[in-house]
């Protein structure tokens, strides 16, 4: 059994230490917000926060996050109080199909929470680690403009 802290709760996980975090989230804990897409950490749809850093969970073995604080999209905000990034996404009606938006939001949250003095081009460069098949980049940029 491996103990993980996810969304401020401790979970006992019965899985191999090499199991990717994404599969533990989706299959063991029924946290479906992080999506499987490329499986090689290239698209960003599976990103979660690990100690405040946006990381792809599809290739991250759970053994590497035993002592970490993991936050998924489900743990960002509540219905009563959304994270400022979530509010910006809603205000600008960012998602189209929505598949990539978990990774987009998680990446933006990691920037918003940790890097308050970045220039806009630096923010956009970090955001480029996520792919949006629908091309909502202009709406993403507009939401980011309201935050940074």
TrEMBL record:
The keyword Oxidoreductase belongs to this UniProt entry's keyword annotation: yes
Annotated InterPro entries: 2Fe-2S-bd, 2Fe-2S-bd_dom_sf, 2Fe-2S_ferredoxin-like_sf, 2Fe-2S_ferredoxin-type, 2Fe2S_fd_BS, Beta-grasp_dom_sf, Diverse_Oxidoreductases
Domain 2Fe-2S ferredoxin-type residue range list: 1-76
Domain of life: Bacteria
CDD domains, per database record: fer2
Protein keywords: 2Fe-2S, Iron, Iron-sulfur, Metal-binding, Oxidoreductase
Transmembrane residue ranges: none
GO molecular function: 2 iron, 2 sulfur cluster binding; metal ion binding; oxidoreductase activity
Pfam families registered for this protein in UniProt: Fer2, Fer2_2
UniProt keyword Iron-sulfur, yes or no: yes
PROSITE patterns (UniProt xref): 2FE2S_FER_1, 2FE2S_FER_2
Name this polypeptide is given: (2Fe-2S)-binding protein
Source species: Flagellimonas hymeniacidonis
């Amino acid at each position: 059994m491996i103990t993980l802290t996810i969304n401020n709760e401790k979970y006992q996980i019965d899985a191999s230490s090499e199991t990717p975090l994404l599969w533990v989230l989706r299959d063991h804990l029924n946290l479906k917000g992080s999506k499987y897409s490329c499986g090689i950490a290239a698209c960003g749809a599976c990103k979660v926060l690990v100690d405040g850093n946006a990381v792809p969970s599809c290739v991250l073995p759970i053994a590497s996050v035993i002592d970490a604080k993991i936050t998924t999209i489900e743990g960002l905000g509540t219905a009563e109080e959304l994270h400022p990034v979530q509010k910006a996404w809603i205000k600008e009606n960012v998602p189209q199909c929505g598949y990539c938006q978990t990774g987009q939001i998680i990446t933006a949250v990691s920037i918003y929470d940790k890097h308050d003095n970045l220039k806009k081009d630096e923010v956009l460069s970090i955001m480029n680690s996520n792919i949006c098949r629908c091309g909502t980049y202009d709406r993403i940029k507009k939401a980011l403009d309201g935050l940074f």
